[in-house]
Write a structure and sequence with these properties.
The chain is an alpha/beta fold and 344 residues long. The chain has helices spanning 10-25, 30-37, 41-52, 75-85, 102-113, 119-128, 145-165, 229-240, 260-268, 288-298, 311-323, 326-332, and strands at 169-179, 205-212, 218-223, 247-251, 273-277. Helix 1 packs antiparallel against helix 2.
Amino acid sequence: MKRDGRTLAHNVLEEMRMLAVQRMREGESPAAVAASLGMHRGWAYKCKAAASGRGNGLRALRSTKGTGRPRSLTPVQERQVFRWVNGKNPRQHGFDFGLWTRQIVRELVAQRFGVSLSLASIAALLARLGLTPQKPLQRAYQRDPQAIERWVTETYPAIARQAKRDKAEVFFWDESGFRADAVHGKTWGAKGQTPVVERPGQRQSISAASAVNSKGAFWFETYQGALTGELFVQLLKNMMAEREKPVHLVVDGLPAHKKALVKQYVASTAGASTLHFLPGYAPDLNPDELVWSHAKRTGVARSPLRKGDKLKERVDAQLQSVAEDPALIRSFFRHPSVAYISDL
């Protein structure tokens, strides 16, 4: 019974070819060698012919790695696909959808290169290029890239230098809201059966303001309702009451931050407090946003209120635990979006 060479390992076949040629060179017939190895005699003749080829010798008998089916796109075309997708929008290529999908990439490849690929091939291509499906960040189209660049390269470094001369601290301020019925993140469940997370039927809500410092300092206070100019001034007073050094406070352009009475209060501190405003529509420049993101991922959203629990008490306790963890606070400043912040 003849062997099927396809069932043998490459190294075994290589050794058999070497042995067969050696025995044939010693005088054995190809038919006898093939029969003793359980192979068809045609296999022995092929081994002999390969080893007899000009400039080949026994090297022609060694196993080589199969190249497999050639790719449909050239390396240059694959790099072009990467440039299309990375940091770009399908609308820039004539599509009416703002997010990349395998189907859109497939259509674009067909349009530009005349190559039809399966969705599985597109997925393999994107993975090979280092592209993965991700939840995108949302940014307002009103953002001013030039203003953001000036803030990062000129405005903030000047603030940091001034604070150093004043022996002051730089804090970043922001406000956020918490709800008892908010659920963030995902959980596991049987396919086709959406898991149910119990939460309070009563919609408790609380607002909070906080200020964060790159050295690990953190101040916060919770309050009810929306922020007004009067409330902002009171919160500033409460924060400043705990400060021993002057404060350069970076805030966003919320109308309450720009009220006349806020300016009057800041002026009355005689340099103890100074306000600086971030560029519009650029919350990613504020590390305090990362504090809120952490708090909402790890707090009530992951551990819903039980009967009798008060949202304010839970939020106060959670933010207090953040304040007691300077290493955690400093870690927020290592995020790429706020890497421009340094203690000059």
